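Example (one chain per record):
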Amino acid sequence: MKKIFSLLALALACCTMQAQKVKEAKETDTNLIKAALRGWHVRLGAGVSVGGTSPIPLPAEIRKINSYNPTLCIQLEGAVQRKFTQHWGTMIGIRFENKGMKTDATVKNYHMEAVNDDGTGKINGAWTGKVKTEVNNKYLTFPVLATYAFNDRWQVQAGPYFSYLINGDFSGEAYDGYIRNIDPTGQKAEVSSAHYDFSDNLRRFAWGLQVGGEFKAYKHLSVSANLSWGLNSIFPSDFESVTFSLFPIYGTLGFNYLF
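Predicted structure:
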């Protein structure tokens, strides 16, 4: 019996020592995390964006926008923020976002490369008629922002962002019109419908500017509004199928949980 009690006591002592080591390890990890984030505040956010990918200004070839559908564009973001003075600070984040839209426009002498739906092959030239375009690009984005706090509740932020295209879709349809071969003086051909898809030609890296403001409604909750403006075209400069630059311009309304 004494031997059994001795073994139980020894096992209990071992368990106690192991539990103490686990506790000390956890405390060490926690202290390391706190030290690494000293002065930095973590936040998680989500938002809904509305905007479009557009040439600035609209070229003369686009005569009329018949319809515009912003589609559902969401973003999920994690960020850290630190104040260096009473008012000034910085915010660095990483977010997943999609930027999309659907449009229908009436155009004249609009450069078009597409595949004719009647099976006659590729068309290339100056298109006059209607064009449907669908854009849905998914990005991993890294904003690097300067912040200015007016008080404990209100702050504004601005700075550059850098994006990597994870998955992109840029496609559409030309319909109810005609095309002149190569240029506006070429041979005319009636086209009822032709489709194009330039998804594989999208630029992988993008950058731009982001500006916005934020209101801290509660201790752990804030609401924000931001505008992001792309400064390089979604297509490379040597891409000839689209003859003008297209810039993503989106406004976002979101909320953030503040740890």
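Caption: The chain has one helix and eleven strands.
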